Amino acid sequence: MGAEKDEQIAKAGRRAAIVMAGTALFWIATTFAGGQLGLSNRTLALFDLMALAGFGFALWMTYQVWRMRQNDKG
Predict the structure, then answer these.
(1) Calpha distance 67→74 (Å, rounded)
(2) Environment class of residue 58 by beta-carbon count within 10 Å: exposed (0-12), middle (13-18) or buried (19+)?
(3) Which residue in 2, 15, 42, 49 has the most C-beta neighbors within 10 A?
(4) φ and ψ at residue 40, rounded to 5 degrees
(5) How far, in Å, CA of 58 to CA of 56, rounded?
(6) Domain coverage including residue 35
(7) Any domain includes 43
(8) What is the pLDDT of residues 26-66, one digit of tens each?
(9) 74 CB contacts (<8 Å, ≥6 apart)?
């Protein structure tokens, strides 16, 4: 039973890492493309807000992993 729980925690951690890395790549790509294409500041702000939402979601996922580990200790 413990190995199964550890595997669930590891998978959740990997998902959180993928969300963080994907959000960072999205943010970098849209910032670069926006500068090259001359997008308006309003459009760039929309992409920034989308990235902020992605990072917030990743933070929430990381918190869930932390809670799963805390519950597993007891």
Answers:
(1) 11
(2) buried
(3) 15
(4) -70, 160
(5) 5
(6) 8-73
(7) yes
(8) 999 999 999 999 999 999 999 999 999 999 999 999 999 99
(9) none
